[in-house]
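Researcher: We are triaging several targets before committing to wet-lab work. For this one, the compound of interest is flavin mononucleotide. I'm pasting the protein sequence and the ligand SMILES. What I need is the predicted three-dimensional arrangement of the protein with the ligand bound, expressed as structure tokens, so it can go straight into our comparison scripts without reformatting.
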Amino acid sequence: MKVFGISGSPRLQGTHFAVNYALQYLKDKGIDVRYFSVHKKKINFCIHCDYCIKKKEGCIHKDDMEEVYKNLIWADGVIIGTPVYQGNVTGQLKTLMDRCRAILSKNPKILRGKIGMGIAIGGDRNGGQEIALRTIHDFFIINEMIPVGGGSFGANLGATFWSKDKGKKGIEEDEEGLRVLRKTLNRFYDVLKEKVEG
Ligand SMILES: Cc1cc2nc3c(=O)[nH]c(=O)nc-3n(C[C@H](O)[C@H](O)[C@H](O)COP(=O)(O)O)c2cc1C
């Protein structure tokens, strides 16, 4: 089983820590993991030039998305983490999602059936974490993936954190957030196992 984790934060702080916590949790269960952070990466905006649609050779931009494409295709499951910015995902993560049109236009089934889960981190307790999760889930749905949450009685739509704007320390101190993340990971692991091993 192979899982690719993405952090949509421009910093190596809370989201970086939470996504790596998730990957380590799965690694301990024997899963092969890979990680990508948008930190210091060059990811150009989609310019809707339709090069990907017309040529079916990927994106006109040659930048750090090459690494994302390769790993999304490699993975059986994908974890996307984001800080909440203005009540939703970061601009960097939204750009990364937009740019995935390039691999879908080459092969519309390229991500079909892969399992996805989200992690959303807000500085405020109710800062838009669930809306950011829905944006991540919509990305999975649009690309024919299977989004999973953590189930009722505790994790619902997926992993959410209240960092109190304290970066990595805020995540380490958010015990409820870590519990919800583990609950979501357990569900993600079960669905992934079912998909890969039958
Ligand atoms: C431009 C910007 C917008 C933000 N908007 C929100 C917001 O709408 N709601 C919220 O709860 N936190 C907001 N925050 C705070 C971050 O989500 C929070 O500090 C988060 O833990 C940062 O994650 P990181 O440590 O991975 O970078 C915002 C931060 C920035 C820089």
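Researcher: Any quick observations?
Model: The beta strands are 2-7, 32-37, 77-83, 115-122, 146-147, 159-162.
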